[in-house]
């Protein structure tokens, strides 16, 4: 599947959830809310703000309800939350989220370590949560994790991912996201897998890339040329999966914005505000430098 360069790309800001969940510093609720507020001021209109998981497993997300109670409520801002099971969905339902994101892991080993279930059990959870979300008028989003490779089982077959995608599509996802959870994919893989999944499901596709091996931005570009118009990224490039060995950050929103805007692809984001926020969140986390490079190098041409 190939397509012309899109005029615009929608960015889902995942820093408040996927960004913070892998950081050792536990931030107070007020700081998390400020991160959301700063993201909105920078133009973000879809924000993954919380994860409704067991606080013992991911203590960084223990205050999910408090965060959602304090974030700004605007008609033009959609909030998403990660849920892994029915209990998580029930918690999320009471917080006024626009959408829920359910992760289905492509390999049993990673799924059992990450969520305590097999891939098949994860699929059944998705089917249950998707039905309940539709009933509640909440958008159900499914993410296929380790779609390009698993740290425990190695390469993941494209045929297997397509089979999972077909099963997920049967439950009517608002979006189907392919996640390179450990940052092993390359652009040719991205283009091929997106084409196959798109053809097999007809679903609205989204991508979630990590920059573990410095291919995240090339993969993001490949996704846009393959017709994907929604990408996840994290301000500052912070985060990663706490259950993935040697995990490093997500692709950084400010660096992604520099790439896309330089190609005349609109995102609605403000580069300067993103860069300042990336530096700020690094300070809150005790990091002299975040993975994002724009805050250090600055835009070009300089203003």
Automatic annotation (TrEMBL):
Residues 9-275 form the Pyruvate carboxyltransferase domain. Pfam families: HMGL-like. Coiled coil: none annotated. Signal peptide: none annotated. GO terms for biological process: ketone body biosynthetic process; L-leucine catabolic process. GO terms for molecular function: hydroxymethylglutaryl-CoA lyase activity; metal ion binding. SUPFAM superfamilies: Aldolase. InterPro entries: Aldolase_TIM, HMGL, PYR_CT. PROSITE patterns: PYR_CT (PS50991). NCBIfam families: PRK05692.1. This is Hydroxymethylglutaryl-CoA lyase. It comes from Saccharopolyspora flava.
